[in-house]
Each structure stands twice: as C-alpha cells, then as structure tokens.
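ok trying this again, last paste got cut off
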Amino acid sequence: MQNATMENIKTIKTYMSNISAMTDARLRELLPSAQSYPEVIHEAMAYSVFAGGKRFRPVLCVAACEAVCGSGAPALDAACALECIHTYSLIHDDLPGMDNDDYRRGKLTNHKVFGEGMAILAGDALLTYAFEILANMATAENSLQMIQIIQEAAKASGEAGMIGGQVVDILSEQKEPSLELLQYIHSHKTGALIAASVRIGAILGGANEEQLEALTIYAHQLGLAFQITDDILDVVGDAEKIGKPVGSDEKNQKATYPLLFGLEQSKVMAKEAVDTAIHALAPLGDGADMLKQLALYLLSREN
C-alpha cells in the first residue's frame, strides 16, 4: 500500500481543518465563559483548549459517525467532550511532577502561565466538564446509548485507560524497556482515547455489531501508528512544527519505539499498523474513505 499522495494530504488537511473549526465553534458555545466567576479557572481551561491542537480525536469521532450514517452532526458534542478529556491529559502531562515541559503546541504550558495549582485544577475541571457535556446529550430516547458512550469515555480516561498508561509510563522511567511494557503504555496512555473516539462516533452513528468491530480494530491499529509516529517525531521532528523541543522522550528516559527498535524499523512498524487499520475498514465500503485517508496521513505528518 502506498503512502498518501500530495493530493490526498491536501484533502485530509482540509477535512481536518473543517472539523477543527466546527469543534472550536461548538466548544466556545459549550465551555463556561472566561468572564464567569472565578475567572481564572475558566481562563486556564480556555487557554489550553484553544492552544491550537489538530483536534485529531474530534476528527476521528466525527469521521467514524459519518462512515456509519453519512453525517457527523450527531457526534459533534461528544467530539467536544473528548477534546476536553484530551486537553486535561496534556495539562497534567506537562506538570513538573510528570514530564515537566515548558512548551506545548508552541506556547507556554498551562502551569507556566497560571501556576501549578491552577493548572491541576484546570485539568480536573476539563475532565469533569467533559462528562457534563456527554450527560447533557442524553434524552429519554437515547439514554441507553448515552450510558454506553459515557462508559466508553470513562474507561478510556481512567485507570484502565490513559491514567493506567501514565502510571506505567512513570514507573518505567530509567528502566530497560520491553515490547510488552511499550505496548501497554501506548495502548493505554494514547490508544485508549483514540479508540474511544472512533467507537463513540460509530455508536452515535448507529453502527451495527460488524461495523463497530471493524472500527474498533481500525482504531487500535491507528492508535499504534499514531504513537509510533509521535515517538519518531520526538527524535527527528522539527521543534517549530511540533510545538515543543525534540528529544524530550530521551531526556526523560521514556520507553519509545525508536529506542527499542531503531528509527527505520519503527517506520516499518507504523506502516504495517496503518495497512492493518485500512484493511479492517472493508465492511464499511466507500463511507470510510476519510478514515482511510486519516490513517495514511499519519505516515507523513510533521506535527
């Protein structure tokens, strides 16, 4: 399978930009006003939410919904909730007690602007608010569906998902990495929320059992490819494009794919994961074209 062509990259970048703009507009409607008392917490929340991310998880959520039912509209609020969860994780990940990073997306990290205590609270507030957004989507008609979605988001965020991955990531610092350890960290710390984004979008689109299974396989392989390419960019990426200094994984002695397998083999592994992800989408036919393009895009991304 070939990598994405320049035309495909342009198409997917336009698609991602459109979904990102929709997500931003809806987030501005959903999040508390920065002028609401106490102002500082709302300012801190907004600072990181609108710091310029790619909105990859909202894009996946909307695209998965489109792949099933032809429209991403039913998934937009859930996509916003997922972005709040993701942003919370970044704020906490940058803290002195975690990775101790000064910059995120080319801007000072939350704790560098608002202080460590307020950054912790801003992350807590975003995580909590995400579930308020999801709960507000529930109606008498879709209550069972929304319970399933809230469970998906909670599991991906908690000790069985992102937090579990972060715990093992911290425990693994300065230790000899293994493939088993690396797979656990990345499938939980990064892959869990990516998988939840796809599954939640699919559920909101009315996916049947076969479609949901296909999209779940796609999501797990996509999460793997995303993390491998992220590890690669930390070694060879452009600091200006990725928005933070390269080499932070090595500085913090993190377990990464390039450390374990080398750069070239890591690139091969990323491509294999993308190929598997795309193959899994066969039951959805042409409706999953954007999901296919998103997977191919990972192999050429620069940030």
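PB: full thing came through this time. The chain has a mean pLDDT of 91.
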